[in-house]
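BACKBONE GEOMETRY TOKENS
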Amino acid sequence: MIKHAFFAGAAALALTAISTAAHADASDAQIDAVIDEGLNRSEAMTTASALMDGIGPRLTNSEGYRRAADWAIARFDSLGLQNVHREAFDFGLGWNIDSYSARMVEPRMVSMTAIPVAWSPPTNGTLRAPVIVAPVGNPARFELWKQEWKGKLAGKIVMTSMPGSTTESDKPVFRRLDDKDLGGYDKYSLPSFDPDATDRRLRRVNVPLDISRFLKDEGALAMVKISYRDGMLVHGEGYNYRAGETLALPAFELAAEDYRRLVRLAKTGTAPQIELNLAARYDDKVTRAENLFGDIAGSDPKAGYVMAGAHFDSWIAGDGAADNGAGSVVVIEAARILKRLGVKPRRTIRFALWTGEEQGLLGSRAYIEQHLATRPVDSKLTGIAAYSAWANAWPITPKAGYGDLKAYFNLDNGGGKIRGVYAENNIAAEPMLKKWLSPFDGLGASRVVTSKTGGTDHVFMQAIGLPGYQFIQDPLDYDSRVHHSNLDTVDHLRGDDLRQAATIMAAMLLQAANSDKDLPRQPLPAKPVPTDPFKVADPDE
């Protein structure tokens, strides 16, 4: 249970206890001190404003990311962390936007809600041309599509998406998890292995590049796709960031409502004309991206370390607040709390801010390959291709530091408060995780559920048998509106949720760092057999 009396004398005693207590799971006094500091003197929202309002989006290897990285390193230094440093890995081109615009000019003037696709080439001035609706549809039928449109696209701005129709949802836009929701996560996630899945994913990833090259050869001027959400939301994700592999012509994403207006006009009369302008710059001077680290040194150099992490990079449409400035702020705030309390943990506590997560967990995978384990992946593969291949490459070869990482806690599901932890099918680890979370029942965070979750930086740690865990969070409006969109600003964070999450993160780290027991690990994964050896591949996948 959370203790509620925080008097000056008790706080002083708690600080002393943190420095002098025998190394075991953190005492009630230690947890009280963390709660007091985290809830009563939180700097989470001021940190969030400095990062997101002041610096803004942090596309991997962009000037914005580098400004943010300098800021974060300075912040780690100011907190008094030790071993503050950067670790670089091979990435690709930087890409920076100076300005962009999109508008319909015929049959009338309409300023459209749009965003360039990340790593799109610039327009080199304003492009003005009629649109042509030539949706690609199923990527598996790409060759047929090329035959259909060959010789028809010169001088046009090509609309490559199916327009679909307006979507309506009977689900609330903003919500918090209840006991029924949390109970639904408490189930074993059955393993599934499809050896052909990687090849299918790679074919889908390569389609935008193939489309752009075909359009360029046909004399088209630009390509436009539809946003995957209604409500005038745009996103701008793009994955063609390697030199020699960038899109062949400018690419924009239009709000669904603006896109469908153009389609209707094109289908019922003279094709509308639009103007696109993108002033963007590639940067090939620095092609290595950087992860950021800082430590609270442990007293026992043989005890290993525990780590908290969040990805620091973002997309370009918003300010990268919920994804994943929120998690980054929580990591920084957890470091502040523990340094303010003067903790002397047995194990080193490491704070990590990853980059390249949005392009395929690149930063956390680089850390794994440098410090923890390797898998035999073709070194020529990059980005999503390497992401897809890495998880299915055997054997896994542990490095000398493999056993040193005792626990990793990740936060990357928006700005909602922590409700529990996914145990990642590790039933043996559940009792310790529940024990460490138990003081926070009164803050709504005591559930340890058996199931796995994916899509973020603990995944590859779990994939090599290491104890990496992601917290369960209230969704708020993350999945419905904010994730990757132009609404991803500080307005969609909640101060109370951030200070709760940072307090829990700090307490989990302290308990894991001082525990005289290691979190149980699952066996080192070996190559599985296909879950369904008789499955016949769908030619349209």
Residues 94-187+196-283 form a domain with the Glucose Oxidase; domain 1 fold (CATH 3.50.30.30). The first strand starts at residue 82 and ends at 90. Confidence is low (pLDDT under 50) at residues 1-23.
